[in-house]
Amino acid sequence: MIYKKTKKLNNAKFIFYKSGDRLTNKRDLLAVGHTAFDYIMTLNEFPKANNSAPINNMQNLYGGAAANVAIVGATLGLNTSLISAVGNEFLNSRYKKKMDELNINTDSFIIVNNKSTPTAFVLTDENRDQISYFYWGASEEFKNSKIPEKAINESEVIHLATGDPHFNWKCGISAKEQDKIVSFDPGQDLVMYSPEKLKEVIMNTSILFGNHYEIGRILDSLKTDIQGLRELGPKIVIKTCGKEGSEIYSDEDKIKIDAVVSDAVDPTGAGDSYRAGFLTRYINGESIEDSAKFASAVSSFIIGAQGCQTNIPSFDIAYERMIEFYSE
Q1: Out of 75, 110, 172, 314, which could bridge 85 as a Cys pair, Cβ 3.0 to 4.6 Å?
Q2: Which is the catalytic residue, given 38, 185, 189, 272?
Q3: Domain coverage including residue 164
Q4: Per-residue pLDDT tens over the stretch 147-163
C-alpha cells in the first residue's frame, strides 16, 4: 500500500510516498555536497599560535554535511539519494557499505581517482566551542562536474549542503526549473560565497537553514533583514540557536521552538540532523512547528554521543521523545 500526502510550496504541488511500497525510481530527498571522513577531537583549550595542546580524545568517524543529512533522513524513514565527490578508495570503505545498507542511492557520485575523499578535523574545547579544518580533496572536482539532472528529476526535495558554491547554484537552478522544493544550508562553507553568488543560490531556494551566526552573516552580506531575505526566495527561514532552540520565519508568525533538553557530549552534526529531522516531517505534510519540534528531538540524540552519525534515533524513538518533551 502506498500512503501519500500532498504539500504545496511556491505554488508547486508535490506527492510524497511514506514508508512501505515506493515508486522504484523516486526519492524523497536528494542531498548535494560533502561526504567526508571525520576526525573528532576534544581538548581543554585551543592553543595559541606556535603552541601545542594535548588532545584528550580522538575518533575517526563518518561525516560530511550532505552525507549526514542523507543518512539521518534514511534512518528516519526517507528514501534518500546523495551526490558527493569522493576518492576511489571510498568505494570499498565501510562508510560506503553503510550507505548501501540504508538503500541510499549513490549512483551519481563523482569518483576522483587522483585525490582522496574529503576529511574533516573537528576540535571541541571544554566550553563546547569548535574549530574545524577541512581537506577538500576529491570535492574540488565539483566545479568541473555536470549537473546530475537525472538524480534531481527523480527526487522530490533537493537539499544543498556544504560544497562548491557554483555547483550548488547550478543544482538549485535545475531543481527550481523542475518545480522541486530546494533547501539550502551553506554551513561553514558560507565564507566561500561572494555576496553575488550567495544571492543567486538563495533566489532559487524554498527553505533556508542556518545557525544564528550564519543567518547573521547572510543578512550582513546581502544587506537585508529577515523579511527582505524571504522576499529574495526562501519562504521559510530557519535559524538554529543551539541550546536556545530555533526560530522559524515564514508567512506565519515567527515561531520559537525550545531545544529538547539532553546531556550534550559533542555538538558536531547537530545542525545536519536538525535539517534531516525537519525535512522528514515537513515533506510528509506536517506543519512547520511540528516539523521543527521533531527536528529538535532528533538533534538531541546526535549531541549525546561523539560524531555526526553515532547516535541516530529511529523515527519512533525520536517521535516519542518529542511528544514527551513538548507535552510537559
Answers
A1: 110
A2: 272
A3: 3-326
A4: 999 999 999 999 999 99
